[in-house]
């Protein structure tokens, strides 16, 4: 997962909040996406990479989507490190329910 800076440009207007559920089939398997941003950069948590053929891609995550909530944790003021820890810890034991706004940003 990657650290990043604030998004430089917005391509489209934000959509409504959507939900996807990701489940790892193997314990050594990743989630199929990476993130950038965090409160230490003054921005939210954004998808920076989606692996082709991953469940994240099949569920509709796109580069630039802002992650608003993971399971019961709101991501409005989390650091990059906190976001990574929450997602990694949760995905080991349960499905990961992501709530996101489909808004494509470019860095």
Quick summary of this structure?
The protein has 107 residues and is an alpha+beta fold.
Structural account:
The protein has 107 residues and is of the alpha+beta class. The protein has 2 helices and 8 strands. The protein has helices at residues 55-58, 80-93; strands at 9-10, 17-22, 33-37, 45-50, 66-70, 73-74, 96-101, 105-106. The protein is 17% helix and 32% strand. It has a single domain, classed as Roll (Pdz3 Domain), CATH 2.30.42.10. The model is unreliable at 1-13 (pLDDT under 50). The strands form 2 sheets. Strands 2, 3, 4, 5, 6 and 7 form a 6-stranded antiparallel sheet that branches. The longest helix is centred in the C-terminal third of the chain and has 14 residues, at 80-93.
Primary descriptors:
107 residues; alpha+beta; Pdz3 Domain; six-stranded antiparallel β-sheet; two-stranded antiparallel sheet; disordered N terminus; PDZ; PDZ_sf
Task: Set down the secondary structure blueprint.
Layout: E1 9-10, E2 17-22, E3 33-37, E4 45-50, H1 55-58, E5 66-70, E6 73-74, H2 80-93, E7 96-101, E8 105-106
Antiparallel strand pairs: 1-8, 2-7, 3-4, 4-5, 5-6, 5-7
Domain PDZ: 19-87
GO cellular component, one term: photoreceptor inner segment
Subcellular location: Cell projection
Uncertain spans, ≥5 residues at pLDDT below 50?
A: 1-13
Output the CATH topology.
Answer: Pdz3 Domain
Which oligomeric form is depicted?
single chain
Query: What is the helix tally?
Result: 2
Give me the CATH architecture, please: Roll
Give the number of domains.
1
What number is the mean pLDDT? 79
Number of strands: 8
Task: Assign an overall shape.
Answer: globular
Order of helices and strands: EEEEHEEHEE
Write down the CATH class: Mainly Beta
Strand content: 25-35%
Assign a percent range to the helix content. 10-25%
- Please identify the structural class as seen in this structure: alpha+beta
Distance between the termini: 15 Å
